[in-house]
Amino acid sequence: MPRASRQSNPLIPDLLAPGLDLVFCGTAPSPASFKARAYYANPGNAFWPTLHAVGLTPERLAPQRYPELLTLGLGLTDLNKTEVGSDHELSPEAMDARSLHAKLRRFRPAAIAFTSKHAASLALGVKAPAYGRQVELLEGAVSFVLASPSGRARSFWTLAPWQEAAAFVAERRQARERAA
Questions:
Q1: Whole-number Å distance between alpha carbons of 33 and 49
Q2: Phi-psi category of 54—alpha, beta or left, where left has phi over 0 and alpha has psi -120 to 50?
Q3: 42 CB contacts (<8 Å, ≥6 apart)?
Q4: Displacement of CA 99 from its chain's centroid (Å)
């Protein structure tokens, strides 16, 4: 399969539900994720270890367990739902920020976290977004720009924006516990 192969159906379905605490948005699935039919499935990707390290999951989940994130108030999507590959291999016309905005309006998550600056730039309409919580809301959702968990982006890695997003989710979880 060519790395930037076009498909008519989503390569990996969205993991979305109304009112989630946080939705992670990447650019597109890697070839390893497409093969596994699971988000962030490349063994060199730090997504799953990072979720656990910052307290978003009670244990380190395998990529194939991604549907379990819904029970934790977390969701997953990508800007490009029709191609596989790294950012430089993807066609600009397949980057569907309008569809992402529609999903945010439909599902109304409290926050969205972009797992790459490229995805954030396209969705937010900002040329070079800074890591961390953004000033402007995106369709009513708080937005975070995270350091890419991809092994290819390791030289840009910083845990701080992931911790900031996790603190946002922890605060929401604590508020629900107090209200119960």
A1: 16
A2: alpha
A3: 30, 32, 33, 150, 151
A4: 15
Q: How far is CA 106 from CA 70, 88, 109, 110, 138, in A?
A: 16, 30, 9, 12, 13
Could you give the 3-state DSSP secondary structure of residue 102? helix
Residue with tokens 């990529």: 63
pLDDT in tens, the chain (180 residues): 334 444 456 789 999 999 999 999 999 999 999 999 999 999 999 999 999 999 999 999 999 999 999 999 999 999 999 999 888 889 889 999 999 999 999 999 999 999 999 999 999 999 999 999 999 999 999 999 999 998 777 777 899 999 999 999 999 999 999 998
CA-to-CA separations, 108 to 17, 26, 142, 147, in angstroms, rounded: 9, 18, 11, 24
Joined tokens for residue 7:
């498909």
